[in-house]
Design goal:
356 residues; alpha+beta; D-amino Acid Aminotransferase, Chain A, domain 1; six-stranded antiparallel beta sheet; 14 strands; 31% helix; binds adenosine-5'-triphosphate; binds D-MYO-inositol-1,4,5-triphosphate; nucleotide-binding
C-alpha cells in the first residue's frame, strides 16, 4: 500500500498520531484518514543539525550544504520526520531519532556496502537491523534532522523502474493485478488494452512501463514523485509531469525560485555525479527505483541524498554499467546518470533564466 494524496493537502502537525492511508472507493487513491493502532513516538525539534561541526557553523549561511554524518553520533531526541511518498507502513522513527525502514535484505546489502564506498556521504548512514514488535527494520539516519520546517522533494531516478528479473517472472508466471488496473484507469480510462479491460487487471511490469511513459522517466530519465513544502502542503500528483516545461515549473515552485537554493542543489548534484562516476558500488549495481531526496529550509540549508535501495542489485561479474547507455533487455543499464545529466542541465537552465 502506498501513501497517496489526490491533490495538495496540508499535513498533520508534528507529534500528531500517524495517519494510515486508506483506499478511497471513489478515486482508488489513498488518503490519510484513519489512525494507526499505535501512535508514532512523539517527535520534537532537534536543536542541532545532524551534521559535522564544520557544517553546523554553516547552518545560517544561505546555500550551505549538509552532509549526513558518516558515523553514528551521540543519541539525541528524535527529529521530526515526514514521508513524502513510498509504501505506507514501511517506516517508523526510533527513540534516538533514527529512521527505521521495514527490513529488505537487498537494501541492507546495499547500505552495508555503501558505508564502505565513496558514496557514503551521499546516502543516509546505516546502523544495522533493529527489531520492534516482531518486525525487523533497517536503521538509518533521518535526513530531515537538523532542518527547520524543510521543503522535501523525492525524485525517482533512471529510465527503468522495474527489474529485468521482473520481466522474466512476468513471462514465466504472469500475475495480472487488479489494483494496478484500477490505478491505471483512474488516471486514463483509455490506457488499458482491450484484453486488460476484459480481465480488469494488468501485469506490474506493464503498469510500471506505462507510468514511465506517462511521466518524465522515459523522456528525461527521472521523475518527480512528490513535493512537500515548508507549510506542510504535500503534492504527489506528478504522474503526468512529463515535458521539460512541466518539470521546470514544479522545480521552480519547489525552491520558490530561490537562486541560492538552486545553486546549492546544482553544486551538490554535480558532486554526486562525479562521485557516482568513480564509485565501485555504482559501477557494479543496477540501480532501479532509487530516489534522490532533496531537502532545503528557510535558513538556506540544502542537501541531496540517494535513498531507497530495495531494487538495487549487483550485476553479475564481470558486467559493469555506465548508467548512460540506453537499456535493452540483458544489458541491465538503468539510465541513472543520463537522468542526472538531464536534471543538472534543467537546473542550470532555470538558473540562467532567473539570472537574466
Ligand atoms: N533516510 C531518510 N531520511 C528522511 N526521509 C526519508 C529517508 N528515507 C526515506 N525517507 C522518506 O520516505 C519516503 C519514501 O522512501 P523510500 O523510497 O525509501 O520508500 P519505499 O516505500 O521503498 O518507496 P517505493 O514505493 O519507491 O518503493 C521518501 O520520499 C522520504 O520522504
Ligand atoms: O507510484 P504508483 O503508481 O502508485 O506505483 C507504485 C510505484 O511504482 C512503486 O515504485 C512500486 O513499488 P516497488 O518500487 O517497490 O516495486 C509499486 O509496486 P507495488 O504495488 O508492487 O508495491 C507501484 O504500485
Amino acid at each position: 500500500m502506498r501513501l497517496k494524496r489526490n491533490n495538495i493537502k496540508p499535513r498533520k502537525p508534528q507529534g500528531a498520531r500517524c495517519k494510515k492511508p486508506v483506499l478511497s472507493p471513489a478515486s482508488s487513491f489513498e488518503e490519510y484518514d484513519e489512525d494507526f493502532s499505535e501512535p508514532c513516538p512523539t517527535v520534537t525539534h532537534s536543536s542541532q543539525a545532524d551534521v559535522g561541526s564544520d557544517a553546523k557553523n554553516e547552518l545560517l549561511k544561505p546555500g550551505a550544504m549538509v552532509n549526513s554524518s558518516p558515523l553514528p553520533g551521540p543519541l539525541r531526541t528524535g527529529s521530526p520526520w515526514v514521508q513524502v511518498v513510498g509504501h505506507a507502513g514501511n517506516f517508523r522513527t526510533g527513540p534516538d531519532g533514527k529512521l527505521l525502514k521495514k527490513y529488505c535484505e537487498s537494501e541492507q546489502r546495499c547500505l552495508q556496502k555503501l558505508m564502505g564506498d565513496s558514496l557514503r556521504p551521499y546516502v543516509p548512514s546505516y546502523y544495522g537491523v533493529t527489531r520492534h514488535d516482531q518486525q525487523d527494520y533497517n536503521t538509518m539516519d533521518n535526513l530531515l534532522a537538523g532542518f527547520d520546517s524543510p521543503c522535501i522533494m523525492d525524485c525517482k531516478m533512471g529510465t527503468r523502474t522495474y527489474l529485468e528479473d521482473d520481466l522474466r517472472k512476468a513471462r514465466e508466471s504472469p500475475q495480472p493485478r487488479k489494483d494496478m488496473y484500477e490505478k491505471m484507469v483512474a488516471v486514463d480510462p483509455g490506457a488499458p488494452h482491450p484484453e486488460e479491460h476484459a480481465q480488469q487487471a494488468v501485469l506490474k511490469t506493464r503498469y510500471m512501463q506505462w507510468r514511465e511513459s506517462l511521466s518524465s522517466t522515459d523522456t528525461l530519465g527521472f521523475r518527480i514523485e512528490g513535493i512537500q513544502k515548508a507549510n506542510g502542503t504535500c503534492n504527489t500528483n506528478f504522474k503526468k509531469t512529463k515535458c521539460n516545461e512541466q518539470v521546470v515549473q514544479a522545480l521552480e515552485d519547489f525552491v520558490d525560485k530561490s537562486v541560492p537554493i538552486l545553486r546549492s542543489y546544482q553544486k551538490r548534484l554535480k558532486e554526486i555525479r562525479l562521485v557516482l562516476e568513480n564509485s565501485d558500488f555504482f559501477r557494479a549495481h543496477e540501480v532501479v527505483g532509487s530516489s534522490l531526496l532533496f531537502i532545503h529550509d528557510r535558513t538556506g540549508k540544502a542537501g541531496v541524498w540517494m535513498i531507497d535501495f530495495g531494487k538495487t542489485l549487483p550485476t553479475p561479474p564481470p558486467l559493469t554499467l555506465d548508467h548512460r547507455t540506453p537499456w535493452v533487455e540483458g544489458n541491465r543499464e538503468d539510465g541513472y546518470l543520463w537522468g542526472l545529466d538531464n536534471f543538472i542541465d534543467i537546473l542550470t537552465n532555470i538558473l540562467s533564466v532567473l539570472l537574466e
